[in-house]
Write a structure and sequence with these properties.
The chain contains 4 helices and 4 strands, in the order E-H-E-H-E-E-H-H. The chain is of the alpha/beta class and 172 residues long. The chain has a single domain, classed as Response regulator (Rossmann fold). A 4-stranded parallel beta sheet has the order 2-1-3-4. Helix 1 (16-28) links the parallel strand 1 (4-10) and strand 2. InterPro entries: Ptyr_pPase, Ptyr_pPase_sf. This is Arsenate reductase ArsC.
Length: 172
C-alpha cells in the first residue's frame, strides 16, 4: 500500500470530492494518491471549490469532474480506500462502488447547494474544506501501511464521525 490510493466519490464530483482529492494529494505528499469521481458528474469543477483550494495554497491543475466509470474495469487504478462524501442527513443519495478496498462514509453538507451572495457561498466552501482538512489530517496520522482492513475501516469510520465541533471551530 505505497502509496495508499484513495477515491473520494459523490454524486456530482464538483465540490466536496474535488476538495478532498486535491487536499489529500497536497497534504499526503506521495504517501497517499487521491482521486475523485461522481456517479452523475456535473462535467465541471465548481469555481468556488477552485477558489477555496487556491486560497489555501493547494494546486488546482488537472482537477476535473469525472465519472466513476474510470475506476472500474481492468484499466482502473487499484484502490485501497473509497470514501463517500455525500450528505446522508439531507437525504442525498450516495453512490456505491464495489471492489476489494475499505469503504467508509464521511458525509458533509454540499457547499455547492448553498444559495446567497458570493460571501455566503465562499463561507460554505471554507467551512466544508475546513472539515475535510481536519478529517484528512486525522487520516494522515494513521499507520495505514500496517493496519488490517478491519482496523482501517474502524479508524476511517471514526474519522467520518468527526464534525466541525470536534475541531473546535466553526469552519470559518
Amino acid at each position: 500500500m505505497n502509496p495508499c490510493r484513495v477515491l473520494f466519490i459523490c454524486t456530482g464530483n464538483s465540490a466536496r470530492s474535488i476538495l478532498s482529492e486535491a487536499t489529500l494529494n497536497h497534504l499526503g505528499k506521495g504517501r497517499f494518491e487521491a482521486y475523485s469521481a461522481g456517479s452523475k458528474p456535473t462535467g465541471q469543477v465548481n469555481p468556488y471549490a477552485l477558489e477555496e483550494l487556491a486560497t489555501a495554497g493547494i494546486p488546482i491543475d488537472g482537477l476535473s469532474s469525472k465519472s466513476w466509470d474510470r475506476f472500474v474495469g481492468e484499466d482502473a487504478p487499484p484502490l485501497d480506500i473509497v470514501i463517500t462524501v455525500c450528505d446522508s442527513a439531507a437525504n442525498e443519495p450516495c453512490p456505491v462502488l464495489f471492489g476489494d478496498f475499505v469503504r467508509t462514509h464521511w458525509g458533509l453538507p454540499d457547499p455547492a447547494a448553498v444559495k446567497g451572495s458570493p460571501v455566503v457561498i465562499n463561507k460554505a466552501f471554507r467551512k466544508a474544506h475546513t472539515l475535510i482538512t481536519y478529517r484528512l489530517m486525522e487520516l494522515l496520522k494513521l499507520p495505514v501501511e500496517t493496519m488490517s482492513q478491519e482496523e482501517l475501516k474502524r479508524a476511517l469510520d471514526g474519522i467520518g464521525a468527526l464534525s466541525d465541533e470536534d475541531n473546535n471551530g466553526d469552519g470559518a
